[in-house]
């Protein structure tokens, strides 16, 4: 049987910085037939980009640290500040590549020499429609650091550079707890030799 779903009704239940819908639907079952009518909430975050910034000459990655609402439930208040990589939302009419370059300039105050797409994926498809395009950006880390972000968006972003080995160790020790940088750094572990051959002294 062909996999299908049928939306019975959808209702906007919240509209703010993000939005949420209540949706009634049913879908086909692997063993045949249809499910019962289901009611689910769908969180809309939209399409976003994330950029892992890497310097093949120094074997360094760029990490950003900022306050994140999703982490406020931790028993330690300081864990609401997460170590991440550059990221931002794609507005209507924008390309993922253009947003990636803009967010790198705004959040890390640097320019990308070469931008390469790593992958595209859903972040939490159990209840969110967020779709990420993940990039690797080749940069010169010699002058990267400090506090950046757009004041009009209340961004307060601390930027630092660390050796790849340290970044990978931060995953192992739990210092990096956000999924997107974990995916990006693990990708880099598999591909940095190739990047160094291609872009060293670029």
Could you please describe the fold and organization of this structure?
The protein has 202 residues and is α+β, with helices and mostly antiparallel strands. The chain has 2 domains: 5-44, no CATH class; 47-199, Nucleoside Triphosphate Pyrophosphohydrolase. It contains 3 helices and 11 strands. It has helices at residues 96-108, 164-173, 179-199; strands at residues 5-15, 19-27, 38-44, 47-55, 60-67, 81-84, 86-89, 114-122, 131-138, 146-148, 157-163. A hairpin with an 8-residue loop joins strand 10 (146-148) and strand 11. The longest helix has 21 residues, at 179-199. The chain is globular. It starts with a strand and ends with a helix. The model has no long low-confidence stretch (mean pLDDT 94).
């Amino acid at each position: 049987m062909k996999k299908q779903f049928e939306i019975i009704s959808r209702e906007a239940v919240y509209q703010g910085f993000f939005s949420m819908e209540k949706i009634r639907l049913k879908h086909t079952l692997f063993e045949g037939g249809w499910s019962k009518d289901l009611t689910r909430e769908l969180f809309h975050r939209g399409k976003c980009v994330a950029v892992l910034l890497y310097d093949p000459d120094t074997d360094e990655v760029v990490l950003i640290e900022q306050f994140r609402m999703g982490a406020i439930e931790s028993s330690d208040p300081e864990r609401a500040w997460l170590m991440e990589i550059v990221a931002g939302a794609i507005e209507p009419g924008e390309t993922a590549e253009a947003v990636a370059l803009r967010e790198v300039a705004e959040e890390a105050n640097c320019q990308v020499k070469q931008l390469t797409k790593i992958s595209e994926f859903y972040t939490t498809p159990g209840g969110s429609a967020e779709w990420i395009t993940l990039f690797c950006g080749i940069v010169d880390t010699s002058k990267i650091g400090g506090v950046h972000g757009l004041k009009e968006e209340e961004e307060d972003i601390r930027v630092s550079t660390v050796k790849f080995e340290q970044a990978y160790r931060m995953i192992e020790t739990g210092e990096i707890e956000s999924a997107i940088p974990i995916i990006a750094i693990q990708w880099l572990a598999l591909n940095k030799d190739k990047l160094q051959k291609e872009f060293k002294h670029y």
